[in-house]
Design a protein that fits this description.
Blueprint (H helix, E strand, L loop, with lengths): L3 H11 L3 H7 L35 H13 L3 H9 L2
């Protein structure tokens, strides 16, 4: 059986996160196995600026989201997320 120390050693050798090594061995990584979160350099993007789909997309899910958004007067992104199950 692999130990936590073995996971950290293997991760150091492979230059990957300990969480990735734990997953590889079929284990659930503990919180100390995840890498620290790095702050992004880009500015904060608000929900209203994020475009999940648009009127120009022709895939089935986008077309359905656009039709549903028009029918219930929702923003297209909100309709799209509801169709994804969120």
């Amino acid at each position: 059986m692999i130990t936590a120390q073995d996971i950290f050693n293997e991760a150091r050798e492979l230059k990957v996160s300990p969480a990735r090594v734990a997953f590889h061995h079929g284990m659930i990584p503990s919180s100390n196995m995840w890498l620290d979160i790095k702050e992004g350099k880009e500015r904060d993007v608000t929900y209203s600026e994020t475009e999940l789909t648009s009127e120009h997309r022709t895939d089935l899910l986008s077309r359905y989201a656009i039709a549903a958004a028009r029918a219930v007067q929702f923003p297209i992104n909100t309709s799209f997320m509801h169709l994804l199950g969120n």
